[in-house]
TrEMBL record:
<dbReference type="InterPro" id="IPR005064">
    <property type="entry name" value="BUG"/>
</dbReference>
<feature type="signal peptide">
    <location>
        <begin position="1"/>
        <end position="20"/>
    </location>
</feature>
<dbReference type="Pfam" id="PF03401">
    <property type="entry name" value="TctC"/>
</dbReference>
<keyword id="KW-0732">Signal</keyword>
<keyword id="KW-0675">Receptor</keyword>
<comment type="similarity">
    <text>Belongs to the UPF0065 (bug) family.</text>
</comment>
<protein>
    <submittedName>
        <fullName>Tripartite-type tricarboxylate transporter receptor subunit TctC</fullName>
    </submittedName>
</protein>
<dbReference type="InterPro" id="IPR042100">
    <property type="entry name" value="Bug_dom1"/>
</dbReference>
Length: 314
């Protein structure tokens, strides 16, 4: 009888050991199916292009299959709600920017950004004021003079009312003591086209957006120092406008909170390799982007800080 009991106990122990090893092997072999990369913008936008560039470069370092899925709408809220409703299994990776956090607050969304685990911050890009070289308003002094002459009716262009660019514009108006009106477009590309069409005096965005067309000029940039890639562009601080040094756009990726640590470690390795990849650097460093690899603890803290700051400013 004792031999039978001992045999049963040994069999149970071996079965549990095999099961545990199988579980570990399952985690170690992640992924076993395609990974969806959810992008909050329509195909062809700058963020969509970035997400697809990430998947192309990531594919150098893994056999995983990435499938970009565009979920445009409500300044990113549609994409976030989609990911929040899914499983925390690591198979849905979400591309997001600081603008989406601003949008949650300005629309009074009940979605808490910390329902996600913000696992990799990859780019930090200063906000700036862009003008049309073929207009009469090119420099920051021109912008201020025109704004004063129009008594608060100067038009500033950009995407998504309530998004980061809009909030940045409001902060610039406040810091510089001028008044203007925001004209939202469906996308940054359409707003830039509107600037060339002289539908407004200013576009708020990032300096890299001017590289495709010499008719654009960066009048002033939100940074502590001039960017090496744009040495002739003055900072707002140089121009006597203080308090705008931290108006930045960050870009990164998140998964649903609760995703296994082993899976996040797998992603962390991929993000590190992409950040150091020569093709990634050659694509984004000339645009004035600071390329970084900030992992989950620091990135989660940044998102929480930005969310709380936007709420406090309302």
């Amino acid at each position: 009888m004792k031999k039978v009991v001992s045999f049963l106990l040994l069999t149970s122990f071996l079965a549990l050991s095999v099961f545990a090893e199988g579980q570990q092997d399952g985690q170690a072999s992640f992924p076993t199916k395609p990974i969806k990369v959810v992008v909050y913008l329509a195909p062809g936008g700058a963020g969509d292009i970035l997400a697809r560039k990430f998947t192309d470069i990531a594919s150098k370092y893994t056999d995983a299959t990435f499938v970009v899925e565009n979920k445009a709408g409500a300044g990113g809220i549609v994409a976030m709600e989609y990911v929040a409703a899914g499983k925390a299994d690591g198979y849905t990776l979400m591309y997001m920017t600081k603008s989406n956090i601003s949008k949650l607050v300005t629309t009074d969304s009940e979605l808490d950004p910390m329902v996600f685990d913000w696992i990799s911050l990859m780019q930090i890009d200063p906000e700036c004021v862009i003008t049309n070289n073929k207009s009469d308003i090119v420099t920051w002094d021109d912008v201020v003079a025109d704004a004063e002459a129009k008594g608060g009716n100067q038009l500033w262009l950009g995407p998504a009312a309530g998004g980061l660019d809009h909030v940045t514009a409001q902060n610039i108006w406040k810091a510089s003591g001028i008044g203007a009106k925001w004209v939202p477009f469906d996308s940054g590309g359409k707003a830039l086209a509107g600037l060339l069409g002289k539908q407004g005096a200013v576009y708020v965005g990032n300096p890299g957006e001017t590289l495709a067309n010499p008719d654009y000029s960066v009048a002033a940039i939100c940074a502590e120092e001039r960017l090496p890639q744009f040495p002739d562009v003055p900072t707002f601080k140089e121009l006597g406008v203080d308090g705008l040094e931290n108006e930045i756009m960050w870009r990164g990726f998140a998964v649903k909170r609760g995703t296994d640590d082993a899976i996040i470690a797998w992603y962390d390795d991929i993000f590190e390799k992409v950040t150091n990849d020569p093709e990634w650097k050659a694509t984004y460093e000339p645009q004035g982007n600071l390329l970084v690899h900030k992992t989950r603890d620091e990135f989660n803290a940044m998102v929480q800080f930005d969310y709380d700051a936007y709420k406090a400013a309302r």
